[in-house]
Amino acid sequence: MLTVENLSKRYPNGLLALSGIELRVRPGEILGVVGGSGCGKSTLLRVLSGLEPPTAGRVTLNGTDIASPREEIGFVFQEPRLMPWLSIRDNVAFGIRHLPKTEQTARVDEALQRVGLADFARCWPRELSGGMAQRAALARALVGRPSVLLLDEPFSALDALTRYDLQDHLLELWSYERPTMVLVTHDIEEALVLSDRVVVMQPGPGRIQTVATPALPRPRERTDPLFEDWKHRLLGELSRSFRDHRRGEEAFPAAAI
Amino acid sequence: MTATERLYEPTADALPSLAGGPRRRPGLGRAVGLIVPAVLALGWEAAVATGWGDGRLLPPPSRVLATLYALYASGDLVTHVLATLWRVGAGFLCGVLAGTLLGALTGYLTVARRLFDPTLQALRSIPSIAWVPLFILWFGIFETSKVILIAVGVFFPIYLALSGAIMDVDRKLVEVGRMFRLSGPQLVWRVLLPATLPSYVLALRAGLGLGWMFVVAAEFMGASEGLGFLLVDGQMTGNPATILAAILGFAVLGKITDGLLAAASRPLLRWQDGFKTEA
Ligand SMILES: Nc1ncnc2c1ncn2[C@@H]1O[C@H](COP(=O)(O)OP(=O)(O)OP(=O)(O)O)[C@@H](O)[C@H]1O
Ligand SMILES: [Mg+2]
């Protein structure tokens, strides 16, 4: 269980990026996080990963505090962030160098197979397309068999077709070990296709506005009228969050934040 | 979802050239660079031979080569070359060690940077040759002062490039290292070192070039052997062929040592994705 209690995060420059976040993510759950630009989605994920310390509140995984990056937490960034001097195979193996050689080889082979890059193991990162590079980054994060996978707008730099493909692919990858996933996205459809629950965030300072539980059968179909229905509901929530935010700004000018 | 649905996914058949992994480019066309010097040398040779040019101040290649051969036959050439090579080698090694150590330290640790960088930058603005009188007073006229002068010349490009390159390493890649819980030394070895390698290799080559420059200055300040001594000797005895022979020696040695350095680093830099990546 991944729990967030009364979490606030203030950056050293004084900006309050998150305030009073409460969350409980069940093992194996896929949690979507949507919200406008700058409402603290990346900050939340970075605190969950242990890359940023919280200013107040607690973040725990199975009862122990997340104070720094941990083996059982994987992270997929918006960009692939592959090491350009390593082959795809060595990039995927980057995080499991402490394992025995045979175990490494077996796991990397399996991960490359699963993301469909087995034929590209010996290529340099510069020889891959954006979607392939992001699949390699997924393989790198999953090869250590994390129980929690954090994804920060992992597909937002890709074209729509590749994005659809990778969304399906992500579900397939999830189905092997069923890690808990927290997926930040600004794409409501993406959140609805993937998530069990969707957190809608509100800016200034970043808070949770609502948590929606889309009652949609899996596999989710983008063309399902119910899907369209949920999309509109979430869109409504999102635009409400912005309206509230703007009204808030009128009441408290920016300096008060 | 089935594999056939992923239509755009390339297969090994569709991309046969990639299936074998990273490719090497054939080393064609290198010989082109020899055309210009060859034409110039032969032209001057012919001009002097036909009496059209005067070979006294600028002797033709044949006479330079003859001088070189005479030096070789008497065993002097080997002595001079070895003396110069030893000085460059020792000075380069000291300069590289000091430059790497301080460059890595100041690039990696902010404290070290605050502590050392201002002093080193101030020292850098002094033309290195200006140290010569002091070095001679301190270390005498023999090998020590020469090696130290060369080391000083080699030090700065390496120090500057390495500390700058470390500070410029992509923060995002360092973060990946943090996410995988790399320790300090692991981060240096697995992220910082490979990321800075291209700039470091360039700095080594620049430093080596300066090493060759400073060995001439060092040998000018009093030496009884070495290619620099040969230069002075040719001037004193009014023998331009000797001077040119020494210059030729410098050119060949400089090119060979730089080529060795480049060749040694090339396999480590094949991943680079630059405009016309070529070492
Ligand atoms: N390192 C930092 N130092 C100071 N302020 C920061 C830092 N990173 C983010 N912020 C601020 O915190 C707020 C939230 O940023 P964050 O990156 O979490 O937003 P986001 O929801 O991920 O936005 P986007 O959708 O554009 O990625 C923003 O106002 C931003 O300016
Ligand atoms: Mg973000």
From TrEMBL, chain A:
Keyword Lipoprotein: no
Record GO terms (molecular function): ATP binding
Record keywords: ATP-binding, Nucleotide-binding, Transport
PROSITE patterns to which the protein is assigned, alphabetical: ABC_TRANSPORTER_1, ABC_TRANSPORTER_2
InterPro entries: AAA+_ATPase (IPR003593), ABC_transporter-like_ATP-bd (IPR003439), ABC_transporter-like_CS (IPR017871), ABC_transporter_ATP-bind (IPR050166), P-loop_NTPase (IPR027417)
Domain ABC transporter residue range list: 2-228
Family from the record: Belongs to the ABC transporter superfamily.
Protein name: ABC transporter ATP-binding protein
Species in which this protein is naturally found: Azospirillum oleiclasticum
Automatic annotation (TrEMBL), chain B:
Residue ranges crossing the lipid bilayer per the database entry: 31-52, 64-83, 89-111, 123-141, 147-166, 187-204, 210-231, 243-264
Main location class: membrane
Top-rank taxon: Bacteria
Domain named ABC transmembrane type-1: residues: 81-261
Compartments in which it is found: Cell membrane
Family membership noted in the UniProt record: Belongs to the binding-protein-dependent transport system permease family.
This protein's name: ABC transporter permease
Species name: Azospirillum oleiclasticum
